[in-house]
Design goal:
Blueprint: H1 5-16, E1 19-24, E2 27-32, H2 35-44, E3 49-51, H3 53-56, H4 59-62, H5 71-81, H6 87-107, E4 113-115, H7 116-133, H8 139-158, H9 164-169, H10 173-199, H11 206-212, H12 225-256, H13 258-272, H14 286-298, E5 305-309, E6 313-315, E7 318-320, E8 325-328, H15 330-333, H16 355-358, H17 377-392, E9 395-399, E10 407-409, E11 413-415, E12 420-425
Parallel strand pairs: 2-8
Antiparallel strand pairs: 1-2, 3-5, 4-12, 5-8, 6-7, 9-12, 10-11
Helix pairs in contact: 6-7, 6-17, 7-12, 8-10, 10-12, 11-12, 12-14, 12-17
Amino acid sequence: MRRDPLGLLTATAREYGDVARLRIGSAKIFLLSHPELVREVLVTRNRSFIKTRVMRRTRRLLGEGLLTSEGDLHLRQRRLAQPAFHRDRIAGYARTMVDDAARLADRWRDGEQLDVHREMMRLALGIAGKTLFGTDLSAAEAEEIGAALDAALRLFRRALVPFADVVDALPLPSNRRFYRTRGRLDGMIYRMIRQRRASAEDTGDLLSMLLLARDAEADGGAMSDEQVRDEAVTLLLAGHETTANALAWTWYLLARHPEAERALHAEVDAVLGDRLPTVDDLPHLPLARAVLAESMRLFPPAWVISREALEDLEIDGVRVPAGAMVFLSEWVIHRDPRFWEEPERFLPERWLDGLAERLPRFAYFPFGGGPRMCIGEAFAWTEGTLVLATLARHWRLRLLPGQRIEPLPLITLRPRHGIGVRAERRGVTG
């Protein structure tokens, strides 16, 4: 499980079927690999499950944000945060997404060698900083955020170690670094919260929405500073990491499939000509969205969803005891030949003939589902499509030879050693 979780889960599902049992140390794990079983866990019986201890460990950094909170607290926080992701608000963020991508396109040089994963991380973090806080993050702030994210990923890896909680309490250099990093990140976030509360101004960013939100369905109350901090850190870290990974894998796949790349360039040229995209262009860029959708099918930013059973259950005739973990793997189901023709092939065109409407609901679930479905889904589709179209106007990326590109399954699905590319400038007409 530590060495090759993607291979293990895939082989287990293929050999043992839709409900497979694994034991890792003292942990009992049930791998569910059919869309109807995913629906049962995420929708029909969602109240019978909570996040697993692996994800609960990230509360040390994320606090009680949308990713980690449970029950009534999660429902209240989601109600309060939802207006920040209304389509009108997202349309307002689109200009920032395009402008930042255009500046990146202007910085690249013909023949330059780049790590496109690092480039997408920096771009997505800059966009997140502006849309969340309404400010350009300084180099030092960006470094702090990157360090905090790396700390969260290390927590995830350590969760599979026996007596992980004991290890966390030891005065190890890694633990001391984590607390220093969290402290600096908290100082930055709380400073922004204090400044915004003092101004009482709606500046149009997500932080303003979180501070101004009132729970009209309950007591009319607002979020405390600590709650705003937890949601801001969650949105900042989880939001930019997943989008950056999706875009990095998209460039990797386009570089390996020149026919799909040429088709994308033809669409971008026909729709945009020599101008930048806007949110109004999204309905006219179906292939760009299809490229992104197919990339997230093959390399889902969230590769597995895990839950812990609160009570004894029966799923598909199998008893799942209280305390057992349930795994729902996007990586496994997105490549299942029962639901996908030529599942290992990158075929963006499969999304252009109404496939999404014909698929079983949870044969494709890169953003989860049910009450805990990713609140930023529309934001992510908008950002991913607009960034892809903006950069593809003038650039194609070629993979550098001699590198081994493989996924690193942590909380998200990163490329293990980055993705080295050479940038090639193209004319508007391709």
